[in-house]
Amino acid sequence: MMKSAAFPKLRRNLVAILRGLDPQKAVxxxxxxxxxxxxxxxxxxxxxxxxxxxxxxxxxxxxxxLVGAGTVLTAGNVARLDGAGGRLLVSPNIDAEVxxxxxxxxxVTMPGVFTPTEAFLALKLGxxxxxxxxxxxxxxxxxxxxxxxxxxxxxxxxxxxxxxxDFAAYGKVGVRTFGLGSSLFTPKLDTVEVAARAKLAVExxxxxxxxxx
Length: 213
Fold this sequence. Notes:
single chain; alpha/beta; 9-stranded parallel beta sheet; 8 helices
């Protein structure tokens, strides 16, 4: 099995999760998030016409942006993501077929894990980073307990019920990577509000971690 691409060096290890994004608002919304300082953007596949949004965003943003899909559950969807120009693959689970398809295409992968067994399997399958999900259930202490047995170089992300208000607590146990969903974006929010929330998240991340960068 081919290993996924390495998790890229971003200014901030933040992933904007744009679940429910309207394709007609995709570019404007993603641009607002990117300009605020969040370079990784995920459009979950249970959004309306997600591949259309992903393709439009990937074409519109600079090459340094990491654009892709979340809730990727099948190898067929990996192929469609590749065709749309997406480079980031996020899933709620760990699936060998999906990981193989993503690895063969050189994608950055962030599969969902919850237990040490799942985390080690994900690393064995070549994951670029681990998405501890739902992080709100495990909390910083739960993730820290699993991290204690993982390789030190493993990139650990907290996703699910996490907002910028939680950065400090997770930071104390060594988590520096976060996926931000409803605290950043919901389909009801206009672009101005999304941009404002993204700016607050960036400021919070910088306050917690910029000195370490």
